Amino acid sequence: MIGLLAGFPLPALAAVAEGPAVDFTVHWAGFVALAVFILAYGLVIAEDRIHLSKSKPVIVAAGIIWAVIALAFAMNGDTHSAEIAVRHSLLEFAELMLFLLAAMTYINTMEERGVFDALRGWLVSRGFSLRGIFWITGVLAFCISPLADNMTTALLLSTVVLAVGGGDARFVVPACVNIVVAANAGGAFSPFGDITTLMVWQKGVVDFVEFFDLFLPSLVNWLVPALIIVWAVPRAKPAPLTEAVVLKKGARRVITLFLVTISLAVTAHTLLHLPPVLGMMTGLGLLKLFGYYLRHREQSIMGYHDRESAAILEVGEYDRKPQPFDIFRQVERAEWDTLLFFYGIILCVGGLGTLGYLALLSEVFYGGFGPLVANILVGLASAVVDNIPVMYAVLTMLPEMSHGHWLLVTLTAGVGGSLLSIGSAAGVAVMGQARGVYTFFAHLKWSWAIALGYIISIAVHLFVNQHLF
């Protein structure tokens, strides 16, 4: 394709020799890159239908887009700018990927140690009413997602809902909608709650403590629809389930290490002015050292007499026999499709930015509509298109706007995805968990209530944080 395009007549390049730089937004390279990105993202949106992992099309698209960019620059006599630009995008991806890898490893380790099973077992064995479960899971989703990510939180609490409600759509649907909205809202006021807030924090446009200015708007964003949806939940009180789960050795220390790791990331960024990923990776190192202790302790208990004995068992026996803790298994269980999806998206959007499309988009949105309307539209767009490329595009544009507006776009991008079940990772994950009960149209039934919360949360932010605008 690139070879064929190289033979096309390029009248724009004739103008380049005369002095002005090429406007790549009306250049063949720009059109090709835009078409490739749209095609790849169309495949991402159709993931559930065609069963093609979302990382695959965007990785290929990233390679094609940057090849086109390099060719276009080279034909314009510039053989260095494309390399500099792609290295910048790669650096941003590396920071995000390593940060998330450390966080995912901690979450996987806590799951392996039985932390989440213990929480779920405690909830389902207490005999709460259905409305009680509705409120408890909502509160927990709002409170847990700022530390664990919103997708993990939604998955954990949706299992509680399914354990209590089974296939009863009258309870499961409103409870799942409530969990998705609460998890997204809780993640909006913390750098650790969502990928978009993490990107905003790493970019340095909002400091760690400043995210808490969004606490009240985020709370309102969840409470308004919850107060409406709860009336659809039956008043029944199901029989308590007997489910006793015992925490594995070291579970509490893993939780403590996770909190220490978060503190290290905040300290690195706030006090030492270093990338927060350094703190997260240092915390991952601490977990690996603790994992070394756990592994040797469990090897001794399980009768492994040397550190290699677990690896030389036959495959069938290895699967049947209890295994000592292995930190690399937790690293292996990270969401690699998601991490590689971020690679593709960051490089694709970075490529479109290099071609000038993001500057054009910034001029149309932020220059034409103004930051208030533009930031509200960002939230609406994130309900249809994944909020990660939307927020990355905004951060790449870096439009001139007040601190209050940066907090506003952080809020809208974080909670706008709640409007549709496909608008956030939490919603997609819960649809998979409660397949056939919590569906796109079941969620759509309550979109009006969620939209009301969206509007009121923006109004609350404009009122309580007016000094920041």
Characterize the structure shown.
- This protein has a domain at 1-79.
- It is 71% helix and 0% strand.
- The protein has helices at residues 2-6, 11-17, 28-45, 47-50, 55-75, 81-112, 115-124, 130-144, 150-165, 169-187, 195-203, 215-229, 251-270, 276-302, 315-320, 327-332, 336-354, 357-369, 371-384, 387-397, 403-415, 425-433, 440-444, 447-464.
- It is globular.
Largest sheet: none
Distance between the first and last residues' Cα? 48 Å
Structural class: mainly alpha
* Average pLDDT figure: 83
How large a portion of the residues is in β-strands, by DSSP E? under 5%
Give the SSE string. HHHHHHHHHHHHHHHHHHHHHHHH
Query: What's the overall geometry?
Result: globular
Residue runs with pLDDT of under 50 for 5 or more positions: 1-20, 306-310, 312-318
Helicity level: over 70%
As a whole number of angstroms, the C-alpha radius of gyration is: 24 Å
- Number-wise, the strands total 0
The number of helices is 24
Summarize the entry for a quick read.
The chain is mainly α and 469 residues long. It has helices spanning 2-6, 11-17, 28-45, 47-50, 55-75, 81-112, 115-124, 130-144, 150-165, 169-187, 195-203, 215-229, 251-270, 276-302, 315-320, 327-332, 336-354, 357-369, 371-384, 387-397, 403-415, 425-433, 440-444, 447-464.
Please outline the helices and strands.
Elements: H1 2-6, H2 11-17, H3 28-45, H4 47-50, H5 55-75, H6 81-112, H7 115-124, H8 130-144, H9 150-165, H10 169-187, H11 195-203, H12 215-229, H13 251-270, H14 276-302, H15 315-320, H16 327-332, H17 336-354, H18 357-369, H19 371-384, H20 387-397, H21 403-415, H22 425-433, H23 440-444, H24 447-464
Helix pairs in contact: 3-5, 3-17, 5-6, 5-17, 6-13, 6-14, 6-17, 7-9, 8-9, 8-10, 9-10, 9-22, 10-12, 11-20, 12-24, 13-14, 17-20, 18-19, 18-20, 19-20, 19-21, 20-21, 21-24
